[in-house]
Structure formats: C-alpha cells, structure tokens
Amino acid sequence: MLTMLGIVIGVAAVVVMIAVGNGARDRIAAQIRSLGANLIVVTPGSVRMGSVRLGNGAAPQLSEEDALAIQSEIPGVVVAAPLLHAREQLTVGSLNWQGVLRGVTPDYFAAREWRVIAGREMTPEDNRRAANVVLLGTTMLQKLFGETAPIGSAIRIRGVPFTVIGLLERKGQSVWGEDQDDVALVPLRTARRQFVGTSRTNPTFVHNITVKFAEWLSAEDTMAAIRDLLWQRHRLRAGQEDSFMISNLAEAADLEGSTTRVVSVLLSAVASVSLVVGGIGIMNIMLVTVTERTREIGLRLAVGARRRDILVQFVVEAMTLALLGGILGALVGIAAATAIGAFVQWPVVIDISAVLLAVSFAACVGVFFGYYPARKAARLQPIEALRTE
Amino acid sequence: MALIDVEELSRSYRIGSSWVKALDGVSLTIQQGEFVAVRGPSGSGKSTFMNILGCLDRPTEGKYRLDGIEVGSLHHDVLASIRNRRIGFVFQSFNLLPRASALENVELPLLYRRMWPGKRRRRALAMLEQIGLRDRASHRPAELSGGQQQRVAIARALVTEPLVLLADEPTGALDSQTGQEIMTILRALNVAGLTIVVVTHENEVAANADRIVTFRDGRVVPEGSETPGGLDLGATRHLSLVRTNAR
What we know:
The complex is a heterodimer of chains A (389) and B (247). With 389 residues, chain A is α+β, with helices and mostly antiparallel strands. Chain A is 54% helix and 19% strand. In chain A, the strands form two sheets. A six-stranded mixed beta barrel of chain A has the order 4-5-10-7-9-8, surrounded by four helices. Chain B is built from eight helices and ten strands. Chain B has a six-stranded mixed beta sheet with strand order 6-7-8-3-9-10, with helices on both faces. A four-stranded antiparallel beta sheet of chain B has the order 2-1-4-5, covered by helices on one side.
C-alpha cells in the first residue's frame, strides 16, 4: 500500500494537472470567442502640449475618418468600427440603473460577432438619422425590466426618451472580470449628439476603433499596417510618440493562461518526482519480494520454468502493483480535480484519454523499475534458490 | 541403453580460496524401471548427485547421459525443458506454493509447458484423483496434513509423466507411519513401471528399493564391500515377485 503511494500521488498530480490545464484552456478559448476572434482595438495615446504630457486617452486623437481609412486602405481588414462610450443613468418608470452606454455603428456588431436575439438590429439608417433607439445587454435588461419583454418600450437616458429596439445575445464575463452584458448600445451619432459632445479640434472623435481582420492575416502584420497608416494620417514624425495605442485582445486573454501554465509546470514537477520515487519504491519492494520468495523461484525453476518465465512473472507483478497505484491515483486525481472545480471555482475538464494515458504511464514505470529485481530473480541458480531457508 | 548413465562424475565447490570435491568420480547406471535408494551419511555427496541427476546442477567433470542425451553442456532453457518433461521432483520439505491450492500446485509444471488451462486442469484433477486427494483439490497446503502435502507434491511430479522420479528424503519431514504410506505409493508407482531414485538415510526407507547405492566421501562404495544394513531379503524377494506379476 505504502509502496504504491508514490505512484498514486504521481498519477493524481498528472490527472489534476491535465484537468486544470484543459479547464484553463477552454476558458481562455471561450473568452476569446466572447470578445470576438481576430480583434484589434485602437485607442488614443498620450499627447504632448508644450512640456505637458497628457496620459493615454486624454486627447481626442482618433476620428471616424481614421476608422474609415483603416477599413478601406488596409487589405484584410474586415471592419473597423468606431465607438463612443459614457456612463449614463437609464430610467424605466420607477426603476433606474447606471451602466455603460456605447455609441456604435452596425459594423460594431459584425466586429464583436454580437447577435441580436430579439427585436431588430441597428441599421445604418438609425445612425444617419441619429435615431433615439437602444439595444440592451441581458444584465441591463434584467435590472431595468426584470422578466418582461421590453421590445418597443420607452426608456429614458439622461432624461431623453429612447425606444428599445433589440436585445443582445449574452456574452458573459470578460477576461478582466467585467460584465459584458451590462451595456446599452445606441447609434454612434446619437451618442455624440446627446451625451458625448464634440471636440473643436476633432469634430468626429471616437473613443476607440475595433478592428476585425481576416483569418489569413497575422495580428502582428495588421497592427503594423494600422500603425503605419495612423502615423501618416496623424502626421507624426520620427521620434514622436505614437498618438494612439493598438492592442490585441486575444493576447490579453492569453496572458491569464500563463498563471495556469505556472500551476501546470509545478504539478508536472510534483508528478515526475513522485512517479520516480514511486518507481524506486516498487523496485525496493520487488527486491524484497524476490529475496522472500527465493525458494518459490527455485521450485518454479525445478519444475521447468525458464529464466524468461520468471522474468515475465516478476515484471508483470511489478506492473500490476504500479497499475493498481495508477488506477487509485487516477481516482484520487479525478476526485481532487472535481473538488478544486467545486470549491475554488477553477474550471476543470477531465479528459478520459489523458487519465488512461497517465495510468498506462504508471504501468510503464512499474515495468521499468520492476525489470532489475525480475532479472535478479531470473538469474538465480535453481539449486541455490531451493536451498535457501 | 540405460536410462541414467553417469561416468566419472565430479562436482567441486569453491569455498574461499580452496576447492571442495563433493563428488569424486562417480560412475553409475540406472535402468528403466529400477527403484534405487541412494544412501550415505550427510556430506557424502548424495544430495549433490541427486541435484545433478535432476539437472538442477551441472557436473564439473565427467558425463551424465539421461535417456541417451548428454546433459552437461546444454543451454539453461533446454535444461528447464528437460526438468519439465523428463524429471519429476519430490522434496523433503514438499516445496508447495503456499498461496496456491492443491490443484494449482499440481498444474504448475503444465503451466510452464504452455498447456491450455482446461487441459491443464483436467490432467491435474486426474492426477489428484489417482493420489486420492481429489476432494482436497481446492485446499491450500496449510490446510493439508504433512502426508497429504507430500502426496500433492508427488502428484505435481507425476503430472508431467516423467521418465524418472527423483525423491530427496521424501519421508524426512513425516512421522514413520505417514512416511511408510508415502513409500507404499512410490513402490506402487514403481510397480507400474516408473523409474525411481530416492535419497535417504533411513534404512526402512531404503529397504523399499531394489538396489541400494551407498555414498561415502563423494564416491560410491563398491557393492559387496558393505552389506546393506536392515535390508530384509524376504521383502526384496516379495517385491520382485510383485514386479514380475505387474509386467
């Protein structure tokens, strides 16, 4: 029992490691999917006024025209959607809720792969007319309306009446833990006119541009192309700081994966050490067994066992021992992974093929460490083996 | 042709820096169907001789032909096969596997012959039947008396249908009555045609044999120079009579 402990711990660690790793991988993939794949976000950078340096995003650097230029001039860009945002108080009857209000064009829905599940989509016409229409995220909907279907209902945003035209598909939490569904989307021009206002230097400024690029393009190439284009358009000279920032959302999401990778490396270190220790334990117990059973080996040789028969017998015994430990370890690992999933809210995915792989690896450890004692048994001289007490 | 033909056989052991001769030029032939008792004081080389006959040990010098095959220089796998097919062993301490049932113990040599489990089982059961222990087939050695254990061991030795049965002090661990029962079984087997070699230091046991070979200091004491003690001539005559009838 104690002999198998090393193998048990080793296999359990492998199973937990793979379960946690798979869980993390799935979660990251889901988050990237919720953001929308192949996305780049351009935000305004810092600006220098004389000797005063303003922080990133302080100045209205990006414009609707920049978005148009990115979309039309860079090959492989599917859409470049400009966006304005504000925090506003929304009121329905006696209920009110403050949430994120975004001014967007219909392109934004394409970029984020965000579907409308009820009502209608935002049209270019809504934007052109600066119509007072709004689409609600699921959280926002619940806070304002509860369970009732509100398509066509009136809603006030900073006192201005709006009509709810659609409900957005649920996106869930973002990588940063922000609720992506606590949002109301209005047309870009409506947002500018009613809430954000304009800037004298840049009448069509936007808070960011969401760029979706084609599958066949790499994020790096697209980012470089956007940077070149914006340098030209903003008339920046060599040595000047960028007036904008370009970030790749998938990369940001991937960053979180590195935490789980650290955990995985740690667990695999534990796993390999305990498998080796377990293997040595098995070798030890098998050497003891061979000594204890010398007479039995002698008898088997006397009735006609060949050296190979004895070798196979003891290798199989070591392997069985390791296999039992492996199966036990797999059960412990599955239990531990499930417990981690339940208590620590860490996503775990138990992959049966990985579990089987870990168990068969344990059996291999048994064969490897069982070989030496088995060979020792097989090399015994029958007469000497029979004579031992 | 003799079943066992030993010529000038020697076996030396190295103890420290010196060599000790356990066997020193033994020549002996045993014919098919003989019942031979090997007798001698401890240290006379009789056990060493028995081990070489059983292909458990190899001679240092000399020749040993079993059924016409020169055994001394064979590969260990071939020796294993000879032990499996031509030789049956019975030991003083039974040497049964403690965790296996009587039936499994009897099956053991057939296992190493790669025999199918069903056939193995049938043959082992038939053998237990013959030895009168069919109803004890599922018992473990610890649940059997000494005499029953030795009978299981005999069944194990005979299940392979060997050319010769080698018994090393088969009654040494048994009381005299049980020992005599075992010898009765061996004698009956011999009557049925089996060649038997028994190592013993008990005269009553040796008295069951047709021929007694006495060892002293690693050599065979020439016949006639020592009268086989305790051998009752009447018993011998009676035995040969039984054998004649059996044939």
